[in-house]
Amino acid sequence: MSKALGTALVGGGTGFIGSHLCKVLKSHGYGVIVISRMPGPQRMTWNDLNRQGLPDGTTTVINLAGQNVLDFKQRWNAGFKQNVFNSRINTTSSLANAIVSAKKKPSVFVTLTGVGIYKPDKVKEYDEDSSETEFDFLSRLCHEWENAAKLPKGTSTRQVTIRSGVVLGRDGGMIKQLYLPFFCGLGGPVMPGDQYLPWIHIDDLIRLILFVVGNQQVEGTLNGVAPQNITNKQFSDVCLSNLFEPVFIKIFRLLLVP
Ligand SMILES: NC(=O)c1ccc[n+]([C@@H]2O[C@H](COP(=O)([O-])OP(=O)(O)OC[C@H]3O[C@@H](n4cnc5c(N)ncnc54)[C@H](OP(=O)(O)O)[C@@H]3O)[C@@H](O)[C@H]2O)c1
User: Fold this and answer.
1) Cα(190)–Cα(120) distance, rounded to whole angstroms?
2) Does residue 189 have a cis peptide bond before it, meaning omega lies within 30 degrees of 0?
3) Which of 9, 10, 16 to mutate to test the pocket of ligand 1 (most atoms within 8 A of CB)?
4) Fewer beta carbons under 10 A from the terminal one: N or C of the chain?
5) How many angstroms separate the CA atoms of 69 and 242, rounded?
6) What is the C-alpha to C-alpha distance for residues 159 and 85, in angstroms, rounded to an integer?
């Protein structure tokens, strides 16, 4: 483990965002331990965390764990919603409790929640100081999630919450889920299509997390979104025209191009 930067403990470090982040943290000189439901090398389980607390030398704690909500094969029934809820709240509060109990506190605790905390609005622009009220399942989830992360006043650990837009990257998240339908020419906007889709590219999000971790003056809530506002329809059109093409065009091309 790196002595200078210490150990970064990453909940959900096996996932789409987590695996990108862990690679970059290692390349910057952090020792990385992933918290996963499955034991393995350079990993601990959530049970280990609850029993043993933070590993010695932990300087940085980041939570990226949570049941995937972008899996379109899943039905949003009560059981799935409970899983979505518990997987975020329980992991986040386990980390917050471990920080509170630690004799030597980490320098920073970062949680990644979502812009789902803000009520979609075609006119209103939100920033980090906008007030939010709970209005649906996702906004309630984000509120509870951020509450679960809150450390008691006076804790020396710096705390940052990043409210992320939809994270775009080829190997995970929304793009991975949409790849097959768009590849087959079956993709399209979620109707009516004029709703905004706040987004961020995976590389920018990783840079943002790294910036947050490394800069002691950054504290509180940040919105992690690209500056360009796009609608769901614009996003689908870009996917169709730039990334994918209908399957009959692919076949046509295969037949014509030797
Ligand atoms: N991707 C996005 O567009 C986006 C946008 C805003 C916020 N976020 C948030 O960022 C975090 C990471 O997103 P991601 O796209 O990287 O997700 P992901 O690829 O699905 O990875 C999440 C990780 O969470 C763990 N996990 C899954 N189900 C769990 C459960 N029931 N209980 C405990 N742990 C569970 C898994 O790790 P193990 O199998 O190793 O336990 C998994 O690798 C999530 O909390 C998500 O809500 C994502």
Assistant:
1) 14
2) no
3) 16
4) C
5) 25
6) 21
Domains of the chain, by residue range, sit at 7-167+198-227
Question: Measured in angstroms, how far is the CA atom of residue 68 from the centroid of ligand 1?
Answer: 5
What CATH number matches the domain at 7-167+198-227, 3.30.1340.30, 3.40.50.720, 3.40.50.300, 2.30.22.10?
3.40.50.720
Q: Are strands 199-201 and 166-169 parallel, antiparallel or unpaired?
A: parallel
Q: Are strands 31-36 and 158-164 parallel, antiparallel or unpaired?
A: unpaired
**Along the chain (258 residues), what's the average pLDDT of each consecutive run of 10 residues?**
83 98 98 98 98 98 94 87 97 98 98 96 89 91 97 98 95 80 66 87 98 97 95 86 63 63
Backbone torsions φ then ψ of 91, nearest 5 degrees: -65, -40
Distance 249 CA to ligand 1 centre (A): 35
Query: How would DSSP label each residue in 21-55?
Result: HHHHHHHTT-EEEEEESS--TTEEEHHHHHHH-SP
Q: Is 183 helix (H, G, I), strand (E, B) or coil?
A: helix
Given a contact cutoff of 8 angstroms between Cβ atoms, the answer to whether 7 and 57 are in contact is yes
CA distances from 61 to 4, 52, 257 (A): 16, 15, 52
Phi, psi of 178 (to 5 degrees): -90, -10
